[in-house]
Amino acid sequence: MKNIPFNNQYVNLGETFYVKTKPATVANPALIKFNEELANDLGLSVTSPEEYTDIFSGNVIPDGAEPLAMAYAGHQFGGFNPQLGDGRAILLGELDHPSGVSLSVQLKGSGQTFYSRNGDGCAALGPVLREYLVSEVMVKLGVPTTRALAAVTTGEQVARERMLPGGVITRVASSFVRVGTFEFFAARDNYEAVKQLADYVIEHNYPRVSEYENPYIAFLQAVVDRQANLIAQWMQLGFIHGVMNTDNMSIAGETIDYGPCAFMDVFDRNKVFSSIDRDGRYAYSNQASIGMWNLTRLAETLLPLFAKDSEAAIEIAKSVLETYIETYQRAWLDGMRNKCGLLEVSDKTVHEDKTLIDSLLDTMAANHADFTLTFFYLSRLSAQASQEDDAIRKLFDNPAQFDSWAARWRERLSNKKYSDVERQEKMQAVNPVYIPRNHQVEAAIRAAEDHGDFSVFHDLHEVLQNPYRKQKGRDSYMLPPEPHEEVTQTFCGT
Ligand code: AMP
Ligand code: MG
Q1: Which residues of 160-185 are buried (b: 16+ CB within 10 A; e: fewer)?
Q2: Ligand 1 pocket, 243 CB below 6 A?
């Protein structure tokens, strides 16, 4: 792989878009994890991953790479920062995937760049491991995401609240362009660059929209559709991104920038993990509306491309943005119906189904039921009440409240064409057995950072390779934290 067949395009946009930057070299790199599956998928033939440790640590720049740090701006917690950019990430280049799409390869934690501001450009091991675990389980859960190709330790220490071992993650994305990348140029009134960027993204990520009379309107529509569907998937898995700033929203509709993200255990609509999200702006139940807020910022940057007349352009933007709500609600309802096994769906039952689903969520919230386990057990219930109800009932503080919901659920399922087995199979395909529970991610990080022990990380990663399949001897990975294990706060690691 030392001759990775890069085919770099971003670099051709010109130097207003980035600053060419070489990764910093590190003292003593060691490979923690290499993603063979992804490497194969990319058509890279890597026989001995250790030989590539130097590349994944930034010590050696592979042939064909043209490393650069991308410029972007962003709304962070609602306030605009016109100058962010890759402060601790470096794009190595782009690869042509065998399917014809191009993918970008980036090192994160590989030293300072022009955009580092006061930061050291480094990553502590913890956030590297968290991103590796969570982004790769997202793939297996069927959620669009950036991927992890490799994780290394640097052999150096980074200064955070205390000294911690450093790491570098190599990640792969359909695009590292963010909503904030568009904002960077719009904020400088550089609409020539906005157009250039839009053309680049359309060519690489949305080729079909180029057929439209105004491809930029179709582009916004396509981004809106992808984000609405993405966030609906997060909600169905109890995933909380944690920092949905516009610089952390991918233009390609992939989950990106795994900072203080976490999956919730007990269902709580107001759940927040991130230590920096003091007002709960990015709480679980705010994610859909924040998606809309961020897309509105994107639309603003594209207005001059929609129509010459600014009033007309605004009307166009509004009409596209309005579709977000409907697309999101549809995606949410479709997914939740599947999770609940409401398989015979029709427009007539939309209201009834939504009420039933909301009522389950309300009952879970009021009874401190574990999100993942509730759907796990629900996927194993019969359409007739039985002994099997015991396990799910125990998740609810007051099991009788679950019973009354279950009676309504069974009423809805009665006389339908799917057998228990058929319905359960479909439900189990969308309701994971395992998620990266926060206390387990934390345990993997603690073992690695504090004791140089990666076995906890490797075991957890292995279980999460098949999140929908129950694995022998792995029941402990299904369990919510004991009170003393609970991790209530997560950190960006910056
Ligand atoms: P994030 O919270 O990872 O989305 O980062 C927000 C901004 O801060 C981005 O511009 C990052 O590149 C930058 N940043 C975060 N951590 C560091 C760091 N350790 N060194 C330099 N820049 C950083
Ligand atoms: Mg970021």
Answers
A1: beeebbbbbbbbbbbbbbbbbbbbbb
A2: yes
